[in-house]
């Protein structure tokens, strides 16, 4: 049964396959929407990507700006196919988020970054036929982060 506070769902299920959880923290609220078999919330996830990249303490400002552009462009391309390929789109966004989260850490782990990059390359392969332009974006991303080429 959903818990409702002033018309806002704090937790519970919406639709057939989506759940909502809200957690209050000292600095702000965390709202997590989990969905399977439904359209992915690309816009919200794109904003989280941007926040992680903007907060990346070990990258120069110019690199952060270019990285944000490339990751946003990748996510935007994925948004174009999210309705036709929801599982594949979600996988790409999961991999982008893993990569961006690690970049946002005070000391990103090179091994984890490389692992996240391999996952992203695999996920991008799932949508490459529908989005051939992502290959160039992925190559830019690899060059920016000095990761193994695509």
Quick structural overview:
By secondary structure, the protein is α+β, with helices and mostly antiparallel strands.
Biggest sheet strand order reads 1-2-3-4
The percent range for strand residues is 15-25%
Structural class: alpha+beta
- Secondary-structure element order, N to C: EEEEHHHHH
Q: What Rg, in angstroms, do the CA atoms define?
A: 16 Å
Number of helix segments?
5
Regions with pLDDT < 50 over 5+ consecutive residues? Answer: 9-16
Number of strands: 4
Helix content: 40-55%
In total, the number of domains comes to 2
What would your notes on this structure say?
The chain has 150 residues and is an alpha+beta fold. It folds into two domains: 3-35, no CATH class; 42-145, no CATH class. It contains five helices and four strands; from the N terminus they run E-E-E-E-H-H-H-H-H. The chain has helices spanning 42-54, 61-79, 86-103, 110-127, 134-145, and strands spanning 3-5, 8-14, 18-24, 29-35. Strands 1-2-3-4 form a four-stranded antiparallel sheet, with no helix packed on it. Helix 1 (42-54) packs antiparallel against helix 2, helix 1 (42-54) packs parallel to helix 3 (86-103) and helix 2 runs antiparallel to helix 5. Residues 9-16 have low confidence and may be disordered.
